[in-house]
Amino acid sequence: MAHVPQIRIPATYMRGGTSKGVFFRLDDLPEAAQVPGEARDRLLMRVIGSPDPYQKQIDGMGGATSSTSKTVILSRSESPDHDVDYLFGQVAIDKAFVDWSGNCGNLSAAVGPFAVANGLVDPARIPENGVVEVRIWQVNIGKTIVCQVPITDGEVQETGDFELDGVTFPAAEVPVAFKDPADGEGAIFPTGNLVDDLEVPGVGTLKATLINAGIPTVFVNADEIGYTGAELQEAINGDAEALARFETIRAHGAVKMGLIQDVAEAASRQHTPKVAFVAPPASYTSSSGKEVKAESIDLLVRALSMGKLHHAMMGTAAVAIASAAAIEGTLVNLAAGGGKRNAVTFGHPSGSLRVGAEASLVDERWVIDEAVMSRSARVLMEGFVRIPGDSF
């Protein structure tokens, strides 16, 4: 019986924030996968274990959730103002495609440490002890991200006492700044409105804030769709009708934002936009059993990623939350109590997160200078991934 031998590809399995993924250096990929196209997509899907009709990704590195079905390709930047070029691929679990339409904010925190450890940052810039600022060009959305990477004895410091809700163990803190995070070249508010009436067949007309910052996001009020904003994953992910409603909201929001022309196109654009619902602060018990007190947060936010309620919060959606909260009159700002603010602490299923953003009105258009949050990152495994040689 004929067989095809496996090939091995240098790779690093990393956690960044509340996500994890397989990291590659561009020049370590097989030649056919060093350029965008079908060969690259097929290779990454095989590495992750997709498409998998069982939705388990048993035969790959994926973890069968949107937070763990991720790939990253890095290379030394061609721009003198950046250290590394960062390309993110969100691999669908049960379908045969890789979504390149957006960034992963959580894994952004791992890009800096990877770049330092893998020789993508000028050694002259790396202190023996201290912090090195890693300047990242996010290729998917054409934006700059800056990571502050701690260095101890000339190497990336990964351990520490920084705790992040949604991550079990503490690690070193990695502050991440998303510069001018409006997605692409378009306006932060693609419709020109802070709040729109979003008509969703079968659901009704919802108030919605449609924002392009960090990642395109559709924000709606929790009470308008029958929720409190304190829900955990099991309350939604086990409800097929609820998930279908959220997908309908997402698809119609995508059309209104100009991301797609027809709702049918949303099926092939799972990564963007995100859909999230907000509510004023209230006490609840997080997924770990931790009590989150209303007085410790400014608002509640729950967000869906790749068709399921996220276990914590996507980093890019946190940027969208910070940006919307900084602009008076958005649904996020109103849920947080309204008024001018440059930071919010929001409750999510795993706990809470503080994010900050500075907003300004320039020539009658809103501009976000930067959004900032702290994450952590560490290497879980490094070496080689193996896939059958005929996989791409």
Number of DSSP helical runs: 6
Q: Report the sheet-strand fraction.
A: 35-45%
* Residue-averaged pLDDT: 96
Task: Briefly note the structural class of the backbone.
Answer: alpha+beta
Radius of gyration: 20 Å
Secondary structure layout plus pairing:
Elements: E1 6-16, E2 19-25, H1 38-48, E3 70-76, E4 84-91, E5 98-99, H2 105-117, E6 130-138, E7 143-152, E8 155-156, E9 174-179, E10 196-200, E11 204-213, E12 215-221, H3 233-237, H4 240-256, E13 274-279, E14 284-285, E15 291-292, E16 299-305, E17 308-309, H5 315-325, H6 331-335, E18 343-348, E19 351-362, E20 365-375, E21 377-388
Parallel strand pairs: 2-3, 4-6, 12-13, 16-18
Antiparallel strand pairs: 1-2, 1-21, 3-4, 4-5, 6-7, 7-8, 7-9, 9-20, 10-11, 11-12, 13-16, 14-15, 16-17, 18-19, 19-20
Helix pairs in contact: 2-5
What does this structure look like?
With 392 residues, the chain is of the alpha+beta class. Helices cover 16% and strands 37% of the residues. Strand 18 (343-348) and strand 19 form a beta hairpin. It starts with 5 loop residues before the first strand and ends with a strand.
Task: Summarize this structure as a short list of keywords or feature phrases.
single chain; 392 residues; alpha+beta; 19-stranded mixed beta sheet
Structure, briefly:
With 392 residues, this protein is an alpha+beta fold. The protein has six helices and 21 strands.
